[in-house]
Queue: 2 jobs
Job 1
Amino acid sequence: QKEVEQDPGPLSVPEGAIVSLNCTYSNSAFQYFMWYRQYSRKGPELLMYTYSSGNKEDGRFTAQVDKSSKYISLFIRDSQPSDSATYLCAIRGGSNYKLTFGKGTLLTVNP
Amino acid sequence: NAGVTQTPKFQVLKTGQSMTLQCAQDMNHNSMYWYRQDPGMGLRLIYYSASEGTTDKGEVPNGYNVSRLNKREFSLRLESAAPSQTSVYFCASSDGGRAWEQYFGPGTRLTVT
């Protein structure tokens, strides 16, 4: 079983829709959970991180972690065409420095 | 601040040729990383350097070598390129105490024919 599983999509939604992106992970020892956003032909950039179960909100974005189910989610409210990108979940693995990334979900928000 | 810079942006190699990918960061970060990104495979860690003078293997180190030249620079070398190394290569850096917050460069698109 891979450490992080992420549905690659692609996902296409109309502008203004609520988007839900999800990942599952296998190791209950993981503590930090991140979402990175990657625009086409660019490097990933950190969008949000959290280290506890529950919700963390930042503007239109909400990161949710359920450690009991080993499930992490990113919700985007009032999605905009500028949100069109690949979203990668990431978890901090066994060492302090290594991150394990999901394969990414390609999101397109149509005007 | 330029952040993380990578050179070259694009490269085409023939099988068996060698090359070095260069990476530099100006954020005074201790840790640096090399990833490759392939369609359907996501980002995979090749090597990382927790601090100046140290390097460690990641998930897919075979066929690569690295050098942490100083605190700013971390290079990736392909000694004998193979078509399986066709990929997009990203360098990243992070502050030692915030390893989850990695800053990525723009990437190098490498094709090996």
Note: The interface with chain A takes residues 4, 31, 33, 40-45, 48, 50, 58, 90, 92, 94, 99-107 of chain B (CB under 8 Å).
Job 2
Amino acid sequence: NAGVTQTPKFRILKIGQSMTLQCAQDMNHNYMYWYRQDPGMGLKLIYYSVGAGITDKGEVPNGYNVSRSTTEDFPLRLELAAPSQTSVYFCASSPGQGYGYTFGSGTRLTVV
Amino acid sequence: AQSVTQPDIHITVSEGASLELRCNYSYGATPYLFWYVQSPGQGLQLLLKYFSGDTLVQGIKGFEAEFKRSQSSFNLRKPSVHWSDAAEYFCAVGASGNQFYFGTGTSLTVIP
């Protein structure tokens, strides 16, 4: 039972480059989320999805895009990377309203 | 607006001592409340959750939390701390769309 799988675990980007953070879950959860974690700031919601084909913005969506073509996958796209996007990114999934999240192990991204 | 406050950035306790981590929330309706633990370099793991009913909830690893509506609090407790409990602890409140708002975390150090 893999749970939530994130790839890559680490990445260094140059300013202006683009990349996609991958997230896959094998629990048939409808809800999926992307958070970023910065020191002393807790976790901030970037985007979330309540099912395939449905996505919505969270607290800090600027500079990011998502898609949800299948129940299993929820990739996060960074366009024109900026130093402010240096962070640890967590993907999470949930079976529904009121349930806790299952988190992936995170992607540590550095933009230089 | 929903928010979560963890007033203690860092706590140090001796192994075998009791522990209480504070969490205060702001939410208009009856909240879903959660505690998560994060070990270094790892994702977050759900410790326990409160939806309704008994205000004292039991979780994994010997943790418990008490919901006090009058104080808007959901404090985490453990009677006897083990060295392996050293980690970062996050309180979260669940809002509409199953979005979670996280506190900024409390870092726990356990000394022998």
Note: The two ends of chain B are 41 Å apart (CA to CA).
